[in-house]
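Case study.
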Amino acid sequence: MTAILALGAILILILLAGFGSQVAGLQVVFGVAVPYAAIALFLGGLVFKVMSWARTPVPFRIPTTCGQQKTLDWIPSARFDNPHTTLGVIGRMALEVLFFRSLFRNTKVDIRPGGRIIHTPAKWLWAAALAFHYSFLVIFIRHLRFFTEPVPGFVKAIQSVDSFFEIGVPSIFLTSFLLLGALGFLLLRRLVSPQLRYISLANDYFPLFLLIAIGTTGVLMRHFQKTDIETIKAVAMGILSFSPVTAGGGALFTIHFFLVCVLFAVFPYSKLMHMAGVFMSPTRNMANTNRAKRHINPWNHPVAFRTYEEYEDDFRDKMKAAGIPVEKE
Amino acid sequence: MQVLADLLRKNEAALADRWLELILASYNPDTAGFFKQQKNRFANPVGQTFAEQTRVVTERLLAGEGIEAFQDPLHEIVRIRAIQEFTAAEAVGFVFLLKDAVRETLADSLRDEQAARELQAGLHELERRIDRIALLTFDIFVSCRERVYSLRLREIRAGYVQPG
Amino acid sequence: MAEHKPDQMEFYKQEELQQIDLNPPKEGWQDQPADFRPGSWIYPTKPKHLESLGMPNPREWSPADEDWQLPENWQEIIHKKFKELLGKYRSFRIFMDTCVRCGACADKCHFFIGGGDPKNMPVLRAELVRSIYRNDFTTVGKILGRACGGRKLTMDVIKEWFYYFYQCTECRRCSVFCPYGIDTAEITMMAREMLHELGLGVNWIMEPVANCHRTGNHLGIQPHGLKDTLEFFCEDIEDVTGIHIDPPINKKGAEVLFVTPSGDFLADPGTFTCMGYMMLFEEIGLDYTWSTYASEGGNFGLFTSADVMKKLNAKIYAEAKRLGVKYIIGGECGHMWRVLNQYMDTMNGPADFLDVPKSPITGTVFENSRSTKMIHITEFTADLIKHGKLKLDPKMNDHVRVTFHDSCNPARAMGLLEEPRYIINSVCNNFHEMPENTIREQTFCCGGGAGLGTDENMEMRLRGGMPRGTAVRHVQEKYDVNQLACVCAIDRATLVTVCDYWAPGVQVTGVHELVANAMVMKGQKERTMNLRLEPLPGAEEKEANDGES
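After joint prediction, the assembly is written out as follows.
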């Protein structure tokens, strides 16, 4: 049900863009107003959200420790899983952000008949997540060729590595299909696994459908209904140089471009903000130096507690009778 | 008799699987999926215990073993159901599902009237044995509940908790 | 409808036999109110305890009641507190915003594994609060509402919070697997803090809190009672070792203040661990003192609110200052060390009146607690053993086949993994680990942490304890393990029950009980009993033989 809701929303968006590309008057909307609005929503939302996180204090040092602490010299500590230095934290964060360390941890242990313990990794989610995110990054970088003149060397390099196998004309990009494959898997597991279906909200399906639609229209434009790259580049450069060109690029391009704008626009207001959140999560980005260095809580207000004097006043007679030393006789 | 036994033994795995499926249907469907899919004994002790022990019970039933042989495997299952959010009837009722599983497994054979007549006596006997197993299960359930209460009592006596 | 005979398939109506609704829920989880079955909820706080602590809405009520007698403006109160907490904790804000519901945590919670209630999946437990956050605190949520996972704050939601946030032991296991480190313990703490604004708490937490406030410990042991208890332990120690100990109490100028959870004073097997500490300190001649005022290391305030935690914890530094000690050693306890390691210094520090802990026996300086000035007893003891300062005879523990249960908080809020293992391996010859995904940072909770260790929710606890119990049973069957060692007072209370149900025959012990039983003390008589006053294997025969000769 929630999946259908999300799918319906995407279809409406596609129809909207398809319709817009056919109506002359609306080209200004889709070619100028939408992208600028999307950029504004993206930047504004992102800055606002990150600022609101950054403004909120971290009252306590609460890392989740996943390995041995640093104590006695002769006990080796887990440098990254339980970091006690800034470098260790950077390492932990790098492992987390670049390699999805925590998802990788998802191991299973089982016993075979005869009592032998075997370890089987449960790494599908990790693999698909990694495949998706890296493909997306590569595709994002590849697209810089539309926004730069001359196109920087690293963009060209990535592009040529990505089309290494030179299958088809123009040659296919591996990441395009890796991205769609990974997204397909991520969607399928939400639909097939009863647990995941139960926890999934429309907000979980929407980005998946959106990205699948963006990826599909992209592939279609490159391989099937070829779109003139020069026109697209003119549109892209026009937006960047604040002198937008309204000359479209066909329905497919308008849909692709519009959906990308939607992606940017919803980004800061959706779960996609995990991209920024992962860097600021206090259970991961703090060193376990709790007892070595005092952490300051900015709102550490005084709380009245029962003082020893009050305590002794309450129990003095009993303490004296039991021979326990007291302050006041 | 022999015909029935042979027929069932041939379908032993299917019978055990079907019974397990019927038992897992007593959980929230989302959870049932987890109990069924996760094959790791430590990550999913409930599902794995059910899977292992229903197989043992089925095997022993078809092998015609005496009632004592069912104590241990049933205890493993009932010990779990006794502390899950079931009423007594729900916790013990899973044994009767074995009858359903048997009849479903035999569905094709029972459709033939001739064969059905031949199987009838054996089936009746088998179902009486399942009833006997159900009574044993009830005993085990009560012993598990008594255990829970004695554990509660011991904690109260130890002073960890104040009653009421 | 035709009558069916017992030998007809139609006779067995599956639905009637099972009497369970087999239909998948038509609506999502958002609309299924919590079903308050006995055995799954804890008795609410008695009004007198709330009154003594000055906390809101004291009254007699029961979760089974239809009317929970909340103040009229309860929605406003929750909203206000929610907003306040969002402004105070970055963790809370980020955990509300970043979850992608990837499901990595879903099957990591012991309550979900053992019971199967889908709302015990950590992701859904958090969604119980997150749905309200979306609806009330995000722009998109305010516009789209239900369509983007928002939910109105109704009485059913409050009841659901009470039900499920007192079904979380704040063990942090889910956090280990979360790609963003989302910590359900943190969310549970926030939810409970909000619930307390309406006077919704449980007695098993709030009575100890009230006790601790007045008497200095959760159990309400008064100063003379504590002295009696310690002296009683010393009598047992004398019976076992022939060595007489005078426990130092409220002694000014001692070098070390020793603080342990009061559970160690109360019931077996915690008491044996307590005897273990005393024997160790006696043997090495440590100049230490107990305190009757700060006689609690544990802190049920952690399960209540930040302010209550701080209120109870403050006594430890205050007492260290009054007695003029140099530093503090803490006993074996789980959530106590969460507080001491992650909260104490920030809340009640700086402890600039204390010295950096330095073992008077080995000279080791504990740089890791340079600021907090409090060390864990296993850090202290591991250092002693490493330097060969204890005479140990592990053969004394040969009848013990032991495994080690990592307590949640020392494992996942500290990283105390090797110290206890090193000690156990030094004092026992038979040590066997449980399977890898049930120990260290992946350890399974006992099912009774975070204030759930009472008896009226016994079924819930046994469900939650099942993953741990299954692992114990495994080493029991495979290696003949007969003792489970741990470094937590709640474990020592609740795992006894868990083991008795899931792995009968396995006893629970503290690490320092094992130490004391293996320690050869200066001037001791020949040991014929362990600290439980059980005859050692072979001792009876030997005695009989000695009698004959």
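Observations recorded in class. Chain A has 13 helices and two strands. The first helix of chain A runs from residue 2 to 22. We will return to this complex in the next lecture.
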